[in-house]
Amino acid sequence: MKTVVVVGSGASGVHFSLAALEKGWTVTMVDLGRRGHEPVLPDMGFEDLKTQLDDPVSYFLGRNFDSVLLPSSKGEYYGFPPNKKYVFDIPDREQIEVSGFEPLRSYAEGGLAETWTGGSYSLRDSDLTGFPISREDLAPHFAGVANEIGIAGEYDDTSRFFPSDHYLRKPVEIDAHGNYLLKRYKKARRRINKLDRAVIGRSHTAVLSSDHEDRKGCTLSGRCLWGCPVKALYTPSITLSKLKKHERFTYLDGMLANWLEIDNDGKAVALDVTNVVTGGKERIEAQRFVLAGGTLSSSRIFLDTWRLWKGESPRLGGLMDNRQIIMPFVTLAMLGKRCETRNYQYHQLMMVLEGKSEEEMIHCQVTTLKSAQYHAIIQSAPMDLLGAMKLFRLTRTSLGLVNINLHDTPRDDSYVTIKPGNSGEVSKLSVVYVPEENEAEKIRIAKRRVKSVLRRLGCIVPPGMTRLRPMGASVHYAGTLPMSADRRPLAVDKECRSYDIENLFIADGSTFCRLPAKNLTFTLMANARRIGMTAF
Ligand SMILES: Cc1cc2nc3c(=O)[nH]c(=O)nc-3n(C[C@H](O)[C@H](O)[C@H](O)COP(=O)(O)OP(=O)(O)OC[C@H]3O[C@@H](n4cnc5c(N)ncnc54)[C@H](O)[C@@H]3O)c2cc1C
Ligand code: SF4
Predict the structure, then answer these.
(1) Which end of the chain is more exposed for a tag (fewer CB within 10 A), N or C?
(2) What is the H or E stretch that residue 391 is in?
(3) pTM across the whole model
(4) How far apart are CA 169 and CA 161, in angstroms?
(5) Which of 18, 524, 534, 35 is nearest to 298 (CA)?
(6) What sign has the CA pseudo-torsion 241, 245, 249, 252?
(7) Residue 48 C-alpha to ligand 2 middle, in angstroms?
């Protein structure tokens, strides 16, 4: 029997497991597996919930209003609703110290992508500069994952940046504001293409517009932020449910992975885990082991393994994340128009700005604000409650946000390492991020260029509201155990097999050699599937 133990049920872990099962392996998945509740009143839309729920305030804002973001000139515009807090509930023992980095971590069934916004973009060869693999290696797995989860989008001006080999499904109906922006773009296309070197098109998102397997097409309920009640918006727990039905799959939840036991030949023989219910330690033996705990957690498990094996705690350099800038805007022609909350809530448009080279493109998600997210502009309005409410009603349909993503490259001064604790305990993770020297200039130019495109679309960017998100906020962590064509310590080969421990594979973002300005989760899933299909 071919046995493999996988740590993590996130986007990476579930798509690796699906592929390994297909290749005849017996898969044991180890996960802490925090769980949320089933969606309430699944047939209802956002507005109906406000009137039909017994306690809508607790549901939407939290029992003590703890999901409300109070006005401030700094910090995040986005918050998480009460029913999604479990996704970010970290066990006490998984300690972390940070410098220049504000990470989010998850120990939930399905991981961080239980709260994602579904942006799913494939890579070109130029995005894979520095990787020992090419677009050709990933292409069948982008298509395989797309067929499994459903990626919506259109073939339009943006297609040359995101080759999709015909797997895109019909996108969900666009809202009136998004439709207006798209029409304006078509009118101003020549100038935007030539003068701004930018294109605009429909987002690629993991959301269904029509039924697929046991998932329904989007009903435009406007509830995306609280979790899609009909599973139109893909999350990894959907694939986990499917895995659980497979006879060669075992899901061990309530387990925290500590480290791997390495024998004298440098092979992993067992995963050492802590059962959080009994508090006791257990060993899980297998022929192969796969870390898919997310870049930060997999790095910690790897480093604790190394510490117990070699007696050292090295630095894993090359930590990356996409810098993001949030730019709120107002579309003048939409002022005073009726707001329709029965709409898909997240981004439906994207904007791409060409860089000096293909590697330097800038990718933006454009979100027109509908049911839940208004505070970006309203919260900062310098007026009393009544005035702010009037302003809110007038501007509601005209508000939008551009989320600008920049690329990142690996550098030795951005790294993770561990601070060992007491014997027998896992170490504290230490994360240090230092931005590129010319980052401030890159940010200035990106803001100026996006503003210029928005102006041509008839939008204004209110002064003082554009915010630089802290490093770590994009949750696209990568690069600590990179793929390398040359055999070297603390790296993996092109199939993501460790050069140090021959039966260990790393199936999450740790193995990425650079981070293009594109959401990475679709590539995580495709790469994890590739590992399962080609190395197993
Ligand atoms: C609000 C938000 C919006 C986002 N939007 C997008 C988007 O639009 N597009 C996009 O591409 N990406 C998006 N992301 C990022 C995306 O969620 C992550 O890239 C993705 O979840 C990473 O998947 P992963 O499987 O590698 O790791 P994770 O999601 O971190 O999953 C890790 C898994 O490992 C388990 N685990 C970890 N350590 C241990 C341990 N020691 N023992 C046992 N189990 C362990 C956890 O329980 C979890 O199941 C978003 C993230 C957030 C938070
Ligand atoms: S994707 Fe969003 S809008 Fe569509 S059905 Fe799900 S929650 Fe409702």
Answers:
(1) N
(2) helix 385-395
(3) 0.96
(4) 18
(5) 524
(6) positive
(7) 14
